Amino acid sequence: MTDRPRCPRGADVCPPGPEHLPAVTERPTLSFELFPPRTPAAEPRLWQTVRALEAARPDFVSVTYGASGRTRETTRALVRRLLRETSLTAIVHLTCVGTSREEVSQVVREFLDEGVRAFLALRGDPPADAEDWQPHPDGVDTAADLVALLRRIEAERVAVSPAQAVRATVRPLSLAVAAFPRGNHATGGTRAQDVQSLLAKQEAGADFAITQVVHTADDFAGLVEEARSAGVRIPIIPGVIPLTDPGRLRRLEQLTGVPAPAALVGRLDAIEDPEHRHEVGVDATAELLRGVLDAGAPGVHVYTFNQHRGPLDALERAGLLGHAHDDAPDEAPGEAPGDTPAAGDRVPAAVG
Ligand SMILES: Cc1cc2nc3c(=O)[nH]c(=O)nc-3n(C[C@H](O)[C@H](O)[C@H](O)COP(=O)(O)OP(=O)(O)OC[C@H]3O[C@@H](n4cnc5c(N)ncnc54)[C@H](O)[C@@H]3O)c2cc1C
C-alpha cells in the first residue's frame, strides 16, 4: 500500500486504537453492504470478509433482502449472527412488493424482537418474469408506505410497553431509504420522479438515504442539488462499488442503466496482470471516494459484493481508514467463487 494515512496526532508510529482516529465529527460515515450467502459453501468466506470489515470500524453494515422476501431466512440468519457475534450495527433491508401488509408487519416485528433497530425501507421490484404485475390487494405499495408502517409498528410497541419505551429512547428506530441519482431504471422512473418519491419517504419518517451505485461525483452532486431544491433535507449517502472488475462494471450497467465508466473499463480490460488491474481500479475508486466527499457527501456506503480487499484497499488509499486495515486478512483479486451475483439476481443492492 502507498500513501498510508497519517496519524491524526502527528506521531511517527501510530498504534491502532480509537484515540488515534480523527474526532468523530471530522470523520465521514463509513458503511458496507453485505448480502446473505447464496450457498452454505460461501459462508466461511463471507465471515472472513465480515471480520475484515469489522476491523475498519464502520458506522453500520446493511444486509440485503430479496424482493418478495425471497431471502427472508438467510437474511435473518446473517443479521442474527452479526448482532450476536460482532460489534457491528446492522441495518436490515426490507422489501414489501407482492406481500400483504400483515406479512410485512410480521417480518418487521420478528426483526425488532431480534434486536434490530435500523431498516432500509424499500418497495422492491416485481419478479423479472412477472409480465402483468399487479400490486398486492392488501399490500404496501411504496417505500414511503413502508416507512409509515415501520413508524406505526414501533409506536404501537412503545405504547404498550414502558420497557420498550425506554429502550426506544436509548436506541431509536432508524430508517434509511433508497435514492437514484440517474432515476430508477428498474421502474422506468426519472430522477425528478425519484426525487418526489424521496420527498414522500422523508415526509413518512425516513432518516437518511443511500443511493444506487454512482460512478461519478457529478451524478451524486446532481441528485443532491435537485433533492435539496425540492425540499429533501435528510442526509444522502452515495453508494460506491470498488472499480476493480471491468466485467462487473459492464454487468451493472445492464442491470442498473448506470453507464460504466468507459475509459476506465477499457483501461482495466487492457491490463493482463490481475494485481496491476486491482491497483489501477483501487486508484480510480479512491479518486471517486474523495470526489463524492468533496461534493459534500456525509459519508460513503460501499457495495462490497461480500468481498473485502477491494473496498478496504480503496478506502485506505482515499485516507479513510486510519490504521484499521492493517490486520485485515488477504484475499485474492476477483470474485468469490460460488457467491457471484448473476443477472436477474436482486440480492446485491448496488443493482438497485
Ligand atoms: C441502496 C439500495 C438498496 C437496495 N436493496 C435492495 C434489496 O435488498 N432487495 C431488493 O429486492 N431490492 C433492493 N434495492 C432495489 C429497490 O428495491 C428497487 O430499485 C425498487 O424498484 C425501488 O424501490 P424504492 O424503495 O425506491 O421504491 P419507491 O420509492 O416506492 O419507488 C418505486 C417507484 O414508484 C415511484 N414513486 C413512488 N412514490 C412516488 C411519489 N410520491 N411520487 C412520484 N413517484 C413515486 C418511484 O419514482 C419509483 O419509480 C435497493 C436499491 C438501493 C438504491
Automatic annotation (TrEMBL):
Tagged with keyword Ribonucleoprotein: no
SUPFAM superfamilies in alphabetical order: FAD-linked oxidoreductase
GO biological process: methionine biosynthetic process; tetrahydrofolate interconversion
Pathway(s) it belongs to: One-carbon metabolism; tetrahydrofolate interconversion
Listed GO CC annotations: cytosol
Cofactors required: FAD
Pfam families the UniProt entry points to: MTHFR
Superkingdom of source: Bacteria
GO MF term list: FAD binding; methylenetetrahydrofolate reductase (NADH) activity
Reaction(s) catalysed (UniProt annotation): (6S)-5-methyl-5,6,7,8-tetrahydrofolate + NAD(+) = (6R)-5,10-methylene-5,6,7,8-tetrahydrofolate + NADH + H(+)
Transmembrane segments: none
InterPro entries, alphabetized: FAD-linked_oxidoreductase-like, Mehydrof_redctse-like
Keywords annotated in UniProt: FAD, Flavoprotein, Oxidoreductase
Annotated spans, Disordered: 324-352
Family: Belongs to the methylenetetrahydrofolate reductase family.
Protein name in the entry: Methylenetetrahydrofolate reductase
Organism (species): Cellulomonas marina
